[in-house]
Amino acid sequence: MTDQAAAARTHVRDAEMEALRIPGLDGATPLRAIEKVGIVGAGTMGGGIAMSFANAGIPVAIVDMSQDGLDRGLLLVRKNYDASAAKGRMSASDVEARMGLLHASLDYGDLAECDLIIEAVFEDLALKRQVCAEIAAVAKTGAVIATNTSTLDVDSLARASGRPEDFIGLHFFSPANIMRLLEVVRGRCTAPDVLATVLALASRIGKTPVVSGVCYGFIGNRMSEVYMRETEYLLLEGATPKQIDTAIEALGFAMGPCRMLDMAGIDVGAKTVIEWKKSGRAPTNPSYRVVVDELFRRGRHGQKTGVGYYRYEERTAVPDPDLDPIIEGLANAHGVIRREAIPDDEIVSRLLYAMVNEGCRILEDGIAYRPGDIDVVWTAGYGFPKDLGGPMFWAEQVGLAKIVEAILDFQVRFSAEDWVLGSLLSKGAKEGRGLDEVLAGAA
Ligand code: NAD
């Protein structure tokens, strides 16, 4: 390992510890006892979240609206446990013990004894507001109520519950029983003891928590949105999914953006973008995220349908010639000029500088407490290489001035609306200081 990679890994380790230090919380903050957990929604996330608690010996009540949903959810959990047992990672009696901690029900009343109740129903604001109100109607006094939303307004859901001080966002990542990252979304009214309680609980279930404020996509998905924005613009300009992914994977990423979205589900990504556009807060460029929209419309939902940005032979992604005319058609419809050859270093700088700039704006907005928190989100949740230390650490190695210079060039060559330079990044570059230092100066 190079000295640089070792320094980056040390930074990530330190940042994970530092992320637990929350202004306003200390050892004296009381904790609420969490002995039993409730989950509403037995889908992909609900099942994985239930496993995370059962693995730590915590009993879970799972409620779904349909018997089918419950049966499917529990069957998937059992299949996952059986697969672990088949690999020798647990015994058959462990499987039974963990399954025995799960109590499935169609009745919200079965949540009444739970100390923490997490909703994990479809990503739809109106539905989630209704579910949060229903949970609050049955939850006992002092229970923590949480949402697993990926992008929606946690404060709006907190208000719908009528118990905003008991309310918090717990954004698990998929697969929830495996991914270490837990974005803890602190609402405007979240009580300090609720925050302290879930941070302590995160360690109990082996998660790495990072606290985020409320905004579209929180820390991770807000940054992922600009990363995907540039990915799609590059596709429209003539780059291929393979070229983009290879350029990013060459840096050590677990997978490039196209393979990542194919795995997460084009449908999941598209629905989020569609909801965001509906809210009127998404960028106004008509070609914004049109690729994901079009693939969704055509039923190309990624790995789950065998075709997305790529075609899948078993689980192997292979370039799909049928994609080219689709993208070319979109480029023509939106007047995007196709380019012969797009250099790999342009791909890397457009994707990663967009992410760095958004990270700086997240810090300016007070959504993340410190640059290191952002690095933890990306290394623990999105496959950003630990040897690069996370996007904010990496940015300082590259040089903030160099990044600013490139962004100013992108404003002219591409879109001034997309490439609005954050003041923190600009200040750091101008003053030749690190982001932590600039933030400390501003405090
Ligand atoms: P899913 O479609 O797999 O599961 C949703 C479940 O909710 C279904 O079983 C459905 O029957 C149930 N449900 C719907 N309405 C209900 C109600 N009124 N009462 C009880 N149950 C109800 O969805 P998912 O992928 O598990 O996503 C759930 C949440 O997790 C969403 O908010 C999503 O944004 C978030 N999330 C998803 C991912 C991911 O990669 N899938 C990652 C992070 C967060």
Helix-strand layout with pairing:
Blueprint: H1 3-18, E1 37-40, H2 44-55, E2 60-63, H3 67-86, H4 92-100, E3 102-105, E4 116-119, H5 125-138, E5 144-147, H6 154-161, E6 167-172, E7 181-185, H7 192-204, E8 208-212, H8 220-237, H9 241-249, H10 257-264, H11 266-278, H12 290-297, E9 310-313, E10 316-319, H13 323-333, H14 344-364, H15 371-381, H16 391-398, H17 400-413, H18 423-431, H19 435-442
Helix pairs in contact: 1-15, 2-3, 3-4, 5-6, 8-14, 9-14, 11-12, 14-17, 17-18, 18-19
Bound molecules: nicotinamide-adenine-dinucleotide.
Could you describe the 3D structure shown?
It is a single chain. This protein has helices spanning 3-18, 44-55, 67-86, 92-100, 125-138, 154-161, 192-204, 220-237, 241-249, 257-264, 266-278, 290-297, 323-333, 344-364, 371-381, 391-398, 400-413, 423-431, 435-442, and strands spanning 37-40, 60-63, 102-105, 116-119, 144-147, 167-172, 181-185, 208-212, 310-313, 316-319. It has 443 residues and is of the alpha/beta class. An 8-stranded mixed beta sheet has the order 3-2-1-4-5-6-7-8, sandwiched between helices. The protein has a two-stranded antiparallel sheet with strand order 9-10. It starts with a helix and ends with a helix. Nicotinamide-adenine-dinucleotide binds next to helix 2, helix 3 and helix 5.
